[in-house]
What we know:
331 residues; alpha+beta; Enolase-like, domain 1; Aldehyde Oxidoreductase, domain 3; 4-stranded antiparallel beta sheet; 3-stranded antiparallel beta sheet
Amino acid sequence: MSSYPIPDLNPILMAAGALLRVQSAAGGPEPVQSAASSTERLITFDANFYTGYRRTVLRPEEVLVSISIPFPASPDQFFVAFKQARRRDDDIAIVNAAFNVTVVRSDDDKLHIGALRMAFGGMAATTVLAEKTAGQLIGKEIGKDGDSIVETACGLLTEELALGAGAPGAMIRYRQSLVLSFFFKFYLELRRDLGLALSDSEVSATERFEKAELHSHQLFEIKPTSTPSSALGQPIKHKAADYQVAGTAQYTDDMARREGELYMGLVLSKRAHARILKVDASTALAMEGVREYVDHRDVEGSNSFSIAILKDELVFAVDEVFCQVLLARQF
């Protein structure tokens, strides 16, 4: 939904032909006829979903409610996905891909590509479907046309997913080679799953990396203390640790809203360094819903705070502002 070019799930969902159920309070011109509310609609996650970098067909008021992933239509449907990153754990993909193929068996027991969806991330401003290449491969016989399938696919993918010399992300030739490698690996795994013969070198290309089970340890030294109640040198956990680890800790955003609840908004400086000559809050106070303006005069006690010896951090500016906070929306 963020429309990022290389999320790991998007090629998988796009190749699977997932359906996105979106909803809005305002409704729209394309309601789902069977839905209880006219504010819902179903969107196919396909090549038309993205309209550009960080842009989709969703309207501004719509949010994603659920994702429906179709079950395999037949035993002869095969699905596989790949990702290449700089590290095996917790890293952004350089290129990722997903392949969804349905094999058709003819009367003479020959195997042909009946349907094919191939989605790639990291090769454009959005996740893309290689529809041209897939269309040219449909109907080809698996096994007999093996070399022809790979040769045709590599040529078409190189053309369909071409990257210019100045494409964002660099590593142009490497990313293009990953696309071809992923397809070749997918084709070999398809042949293996169909029971077709593979050479020893081809079998090695279908091996999967198995991630070992994660284990964690914490080592600490317990030092003797002068009194049994002393916490110094003892492995005493934080009071809220159990709640935070279990996910049951209550934060401000977890609290239910109450009727008549008020919200505070910060008024930030528009100058990097300036003297405060006058504050006129009359326009804001005249707006509907605005109850009060609060500044340093409303702070009971000290208006300064700091963990250092010098108490030079102010809660509210008094006579001067010393910095300008740039928010993302200002760009």
